[in-house]
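Hey,

Quick one before I head out. I ran the complex with NAP overnight. Inputs first:
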Amino acid sequence: MSLYRNSAWFLKGVTEFTKNAFISASKRFVEKDLEVSMAGRSFMITGANSGIGRATAMAIAKKGGTVHMVCRNKDKAEEARADIVKESGNKEIFVHILDLSETKKVWEFAESFKRKYKSLNVLINNAGCIMSQREENTEGLEKSFASNVLGVYILTKSLIALLEKSAEPRVVTVSSGGMLVQKLRTGNLQTDRGRYDGAMVYAQNKVREKPRFRQSKVREEPRFRQSKVREEPRFRQSKVREEPRFRQSKVREEPRFRQSKVREEPRFRQSKVREEPRFRQSKVREEPRFRQSKRQQVVITEQLAKNHLNIHFSVMHPGWVDTPAVANAMPEFHSSMRESLRTPEQGADTAVWLAVSHAAATMPSGHFYQDRKMVSAHLPLAWTRSSSLEEQKFMFSLEDLAKSHQPH
Ligand SMILES: NC(=O)c1ccc[n+]([C@@H]2O[C@H](COP(=O)([O-])OP(=O)(O)OC[C@H]3O[C@@H](n4cnc5c(N)ncnc54)[C@H](OP(=O)(O)O)[C@@H]3O)[C@@H](O)[C@H]2O)c1
């Protein structure tokens, strides 16, 4: 299943997540959708100082919206704010300092925002991180879970009352297509220690990208290794030789990708899998956690949409975008795919569309989007769907955890 999931995801990625895929998809975009004034409407955007969040803030500022930039670093935030004000001519841009990984601070920030502002039309949960190693926040919660899941949940839940008082409220969450290889995990939300660890490493191996998949199989399952190591070149052959249309469009369009993946993969494997255990450790342990957090964001969106019918909820994948997060957390992927990565503006396009367009508001609430289109949050036959009981259990656990960290 993991080989299937990863292969299906990777093929989907090179076909749908690249810059060329955006250019191709944009041919069906309706230009008028974004020709709207946002004057009088207010937007909160987390992680608005960089990458997709900054591009989203800039686009909305240019449409006259009031923008509340929620960022963790004051210097970076002020610098981005100055650029946005200068380029957009819009002075209604405000900086709020919040580290979303600090759970109690998220509660406090939301409460103080509600006291100070009378309305908020749109919340854009964009901030996200892939931690290079396991870290805990000051409350002992694992940081990537605290930022990507619990922080998003608390901020959203706390602001619902304010959103509901405002006209045409929306919540847009920037998830990731990486979640397509993950099934929702309902217990041990922080994936931290103890009994779960062994299973976690197993699960991590199951969802790793190809080179890492091979590494886990080579070391852990000798019999499986025999079959898989021998079958993989055949898999590659089949993908490169048996799909002429795919080859025509993708392999030829992305020579650097081809170089790196088809020809340099053994070298990559040699260096990364055998010579850099620390790299392996961090990537093996952290990336599945990131992808799981992105799956959890999808489920949170679906569940909140069911309970808050006055708010339009959506969750989206921006594609593969050239941002500091990708360059820092996935340097090999970044350097081999650089020419094929989307610009931050292209990555932000669907988030902006979901936040401002009339067309998006007419779509059903609680769904997953890619390139201005509602798409499935599951790969076909990948067994990533969870039952409604599992989803309820996850939401209860999240609510419990959120409440237990609420300041009194
Ligand atoms: N780039 C891609 O290919 C891609 C693909 C799928 C999904 N995404 C998602 O897109 C979103 C934006 O990421 P990006 O690619 O634009 O990366 P980015 O340029 O590095 O931006 C990430 C933003 O999130 C902020 N942030 C991270 N942790 C935070 C925390 N604990 N509290 C407050 N702010 C925090 C960062 O602040 P600092 O600047 O201070 O670090 C930064 O402003 C993320 O949710 C990411 O998972 C990106």
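Strands lie at 42-46, 66-71, 93-97, 122-125, 170-174, 312-317, 367-370, 373-375.

Talk tomorrow,
K.
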